[in-house]
């Protein structure tokens, strides 16, 4: 909202300094700072209110060290994260931008599903919370909305790169021997289902190509592949974040690392010079997503102030489903969803560890009986971070090592843009 206000002041009154709000980097910095302030200052008040209302976590007995001490720790702290994302975004982003609108809807939608789950656990004293099938329906619902908007909305477009001619060659100042092709893109944006794929030189994949072989015009029905893909990504990543949120600070810190990478990718995808240099598609108006991601990073880092070991508050499903969904929708918006298995490798491994544990248990039960299956599990406990707790590692050490792995995966994600 402040963007439009200062834009009016700049145009109508030539107000000194108002023009600085045109710069995405400036507004992103303000969003980050505001998000941190909300998390740190108002977060404490929210925690005290939650504690006063006795909204505490009921911890299941899993035989983990230090587990019983966490009983009664305030939960639903995801409300802090959601507030610290939405308020700065509304203040500093172009709220009429289709990408920003969709990110806000996704945040509220998935945060609402998580809130309902936490509410049932805390107030209804039902440890199971919201039934899994209803969570899945909600995730499919937002995935369907996101997929349809990205496919049908006229503002969701890209500009294709035009091969430079000799007239477009620009000389770099100070080095006459070194030449650089000036970036050139088609003036008319196009609707397309192209996305970025890692490790390939011509690194664009059109979802329509999966069915183009069926008939001459079948490529235009690429949404048949694209929309289910969106639903799969949203569901998988939001559940991955939810599973990762099992020890103090792990989900919030890992998400902040992922957020930094996605924010940079959004910036370069919305800038013709950087998009040209990295040979990635130019997505008009996607740069505005940097403001949203700055707020997201600030919210996660600010929440870590209270969620790091020993946690003063848990984010609950209110926060974990929301941050997972945000990462998924954001990656799809900048057409980098196929980088998620690398970038969100921690979420992926946590998800896979649970799946493997269940599959292996059922296999052993069928093959050698229940007693054998219970004593010969693939992991001592799933998800993976609990396995390491059972082995004897302190949870703060597990978290820090997962952070290091997350940073390595973040660097690898950047490397894929040039390693083809």
Q: What's the domain count?
A: 1
Give me the side-by-side strand order of the main sheet: 1-2
Question: In angstroms, what separates the terminal alpha carbons?
Answer: 41 Å
Biggest beta sheet summary: 2 strands, antiparallel
- Please provide the ordered H/E string of secondary-structure elements: HHHHHEEEEHHHHHHHHHH
Tell me the number of helical segments per DSSP (H or I, 4 or more residues long): 15
Which word captures the global form?
globular
Strand content: under 5%
Overall mean confidence score, pLDDT: 87
- Give me the Rg, rounded: 23 Å
Unreliable parts: 165-180
Return the structural class.
Answer: mainly alpha
Strand tally is: 4
> Roughly how much helix do the residues carry, as a percent range?
55-70%
Molecular structure report:
- The chain is built from 15 helices and four strands.
- With 420 residues, the chain is mainly α.
- The protein has one domain.
- The strands form two sheets. The chain has a two-stranded antiparallel ribbon. A two-stranded antiparallel ribbon has the order 3-4.
- A hairpin with a 7-residue loop joins strand 1 and strand 2.
- The protein is globular, with a radius of gyration of 23 Å.
């Amino acid at each position: 909202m402040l963007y439009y206000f200062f834009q009016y002041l700049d145009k109508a009154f030539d107000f000194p300094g108002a023009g600085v709000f045109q710069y995405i980097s400036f507004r992103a910095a303000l969003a980050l700072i505001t998000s941190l302030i909300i998390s740190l200052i108002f977060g404490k008040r929210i925690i005290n209110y939650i504690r006063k209302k006795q909204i505490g976590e009921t911890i299941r007995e899993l035989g983990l060290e230090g587990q019983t001490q966490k009983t009664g720790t305030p939960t639903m702290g995801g409300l802090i994260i959601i507030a610290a994302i939405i308020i700065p975004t509304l203040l500093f982003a172009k709220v009429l931008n289709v990408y920003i609108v969709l990110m806000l809807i996704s945040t509220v939608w998935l945060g609402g599903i998580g809130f309902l789950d936490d509410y049932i656990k805390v107030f209804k004293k039902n440890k199971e919370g919201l039934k899994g099938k209803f969570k899945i329906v909600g995730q499919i619902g937002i995935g369907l909305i996101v997929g349809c908007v990205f496919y049908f909305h006229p503002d969701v477009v890209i500009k294709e790169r035009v091969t430079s001619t000799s007239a477009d060659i620009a000389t770099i100042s100070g080095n006459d021997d070194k030449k650089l092709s000036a970036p050139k893109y088609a003036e008319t944006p196009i609707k397309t289902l192209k996305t970025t794929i890692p490790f390939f030189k011509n690194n664009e994949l059109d979802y329509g190509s999966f069915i183009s072989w069926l008939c001459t015009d079948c490529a235009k029905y690429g949404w048949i592949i694209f929309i289910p893909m969106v639903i799969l990504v949203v569901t998988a990543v939001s559940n991955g974040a939810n599973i990762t949120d099992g020890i103090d600070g792990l989900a919030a810190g890992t998400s902040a690392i992922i957020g930094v990478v996605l924010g940079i990718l959004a910036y370069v995808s919305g800038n013709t010079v950087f998009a040209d240099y990295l040979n990635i598609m130019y997505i008009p108006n996607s740069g505005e997503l940097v403001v949203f991601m700055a707020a997201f990073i600030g919210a996660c880092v600010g929440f870590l102030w209270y969620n790091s070991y020993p946690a003063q508050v848990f984010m609950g499903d209110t926060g974990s489903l929301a941050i997972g969904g945000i990462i998924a929708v954001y990656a799809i918006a900048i057409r980098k969803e196929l980088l998620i298995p690398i970038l969100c490798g921690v979420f992926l491994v946590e998800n896979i560890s649970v799946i493997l544990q269940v599959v292996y248990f059922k296999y052993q039960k069928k093959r050698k009986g229940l007693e054998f299956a219970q004593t010969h599990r693939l992991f001592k406990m799933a998800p993976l971070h609990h396995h390491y707790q059972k082995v004897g590692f302190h949870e703060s050490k597990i978290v820090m090592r997962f952070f290091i792995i997350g940073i390595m995966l973040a660097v690898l994600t950047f490397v894929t843009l040039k390693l083809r």
